[in-house]
Write a structure and sequence with these properties.
single chain, 7-stranded parallel β-sheet, two-stranded parallel ribbon, 41% helix, globular, binds NADP nicotinamide-adenine-dinucleotide phosphate
């Protein structure tokens, strides 16, 4: 029996797949988008190489991972009847981490988040009827709390249906939580709501650069249109992954919903920028909150440009509401149950931002060694497209699909 994990090729999903399979020896059924088996393995290697060397990857691929090539937006994930049956029959818990984080696209959020989660729920029901489902966990987001200002939000107060949302991502993730609760009433469920997931306390390397890029942009400004005493709730990815793994494996977690966040101990903008300025040997920025409106207009204008400044501005535009809401998410539940709190962002931010800048916001991916292929001879595998991020032949990268 295995955990059915979606989103393993994503940033957080790669931590979950590696943690479950390599650290805990769990068997995994992974849903991976790819046109053939070779591409699926290569895409998985690309995601997991942040955590594993190639022999270790091959080891878990051969012993603990079964890949189902499918798409959340296709009926039965696009699997044929026998594959779908095999997936349902070998799944005894579900961890749904895949999503579209494209805050600008109603269509993408509707299809991937709503239709996709419904497909995962249908699979869970099949598995539950067949052999019983130990747990259904979903990775949600604190963004389900909608428009907020100057608040500390608890898990049970976050969802209010008459409250507006900042974007389609938040709106669809909110309904996903509701859908799972309504359609799986008899299955033990866990909802994880991370805040802004940024960086790893154990290493500077990351494969996810959107928010980092927005921070680097802000860190380069001499004047910030923010209130210095506002708190920003950032949580490191290793804390999120450790919490999800521990609570998903637990026989009976104490709660149904967990904020994976820094909560009341979230740092202020001044604390973060002071630490970064002294690490870089630069002047501390000035804070001028009155500039928020002109700053937003400038960012909107810049976001129309088709260069790297335009890209950074378009990221900042969608993230900006989450920078100025001065709202944090109570984490008493997870801290109590795990016995530890997340490290403050300023303690690991500088190496992360330096890594991102030095590598031009790209992870230096290693290619798949040419001589090996688990299920297909290397010469029969055809890359669809090779991006500059992949750094050469053999490693296809598809990062754009779910990013703003
Ligand atoms: N990152 C954050 O700051 C943050 C904060 C709060 C909550 N979360 C939640 O954490 C989860 C993971 O986020 P992330 O940052 O790791 O995102 P990510 O890096 O963009 O990964 C998204 C994953 O979803 C998969 N996916 C997207 N569309 C799919 C489809 N149609 N069929 C199958 N798989 C599909 C992607 O597969 P491909 O590789 O094929 O594209 C990828 O594996 C999400 O549920 C998100 O809402 C993230």
């Amino acid at each position: 029996m295995a955990i059915f994990l979606t989103g393993a090729t994503g940033y957080i999903g790669s931590y979950l797949a590696t943690g479950f399979a390599a650290r805990h020896g769990e068997s995994l059924n992974l849903l991976v988008r790819a046109k053939d088996a070779g591409e699926a393995e290569r895409r998985l290697w690309q995601a997991l190489q942040l955590h594993l060397d190639f022999p270790a990857f091959r080891e878990i691929l051969g012993t603990r991972i079964r890949i189902f090539r499918g798409d959340l937006t296709a009926p039965n994930f696009g699997l044929d009847a026998s594959e779908y049956h095999a997936l349902a029959a070998s799944t005894d818990s579900v961890l749904h981490a895949a999503a579209s984080l494209n805050r600008k696209s109603e269509k993408s959020c509707l299809n991937v988040n709503l239709r996709g989660t419904l497909e995962v729920v249908q699979l869970a029901r099949r598995a539950n009827e067949a052999q019983g489902l130990r747990r259904f966990s979903q990775i949600s987001t604190v963004a389900v709390a909608g428009h907020r200002k100057n608040e500390v939000v608890g898990e049970d107060q976050a969802i209010e249906w008459d409250r507006s949302d900042y974007d389609p991502y938040a709106r669809t993730k909110k309904f996903c939580e509701h859908m799972v609760r309504e359609l799986l009433p008899n299955v033990p469920r866990t909802v994880f709501r991370p805040s802004i997931v940024l960086g790893d306390t154990r290493r500077p390397e990351t494969t996810q650069f959107d928010m980092v890029r927005a921070f680097v942009f802000l860190a380069g400004l001499p004047v910030l249109p923010l209130r210095p005493t506002d708190q920003i709730d950032i949580v490191p990815v290793d804390y999120v992954a450790d919490a999800v793994i521990a609570l998903h494996r637990k026989v009976q977690p104490e709660h149904e919903i967990y904020h994976l966040s820094s909560g009341r101990r979230s740092e202020t903008f001044r604390e973060v920028t002071d630490t970064l300025a002294s690490a870089r040997g630069k002047m501390k920025p000035l804070f001028w909150p009155g500039l928020e409106a002109p700053f937003r207009s400038t960012v909107t204008l810049l976001s129309r440009r088709r260069d790297s400044v335009g890209f950074a501005a378009s990221l900042l535009k969608v993230f900006f509401p989450y920078l100025v809401w001065n709202t944090v998410f109570d984490n008493t539940r997870v801290v109590g149950e795990l016995g530890c709190a997340p490290a403050p962002f300023s303690t690991y931010a500088f190496p992360l931002l330096r890594f991102a800048r030095e590598n031009k916001f790209r992870y230096p991916y290693r290619n798949w060694p040419e001589e090996v292929s688990a299920t297909a001879p290397a010469e029969t595998w055809e890359p669809v497209a090779t991006t500059s991020q992949a750094g050469g032949r053999g490693a296809q990268l598809r990062t754009g699909g779910s990013r703003p």
